[in-house]
Amino acid sequence: MQNLIIAAIHGGDDQARCVTRPIDLVALVRTHGAALRRFLRRQLDSADAAEDLSQETYLRLARLGDGDDIADQRGYLFTIASNLARDHRRRLRREGTTEPVATLEVLHCPAPDPERTVAARQELAALEQAIAALPPRTREILLLFRVEGWTRRQIADHLGLSPKTVEYHVQQAMLRCRAAIDG
Question: pTM for the whole thing?
Answer without folding.
Answer: 0.41
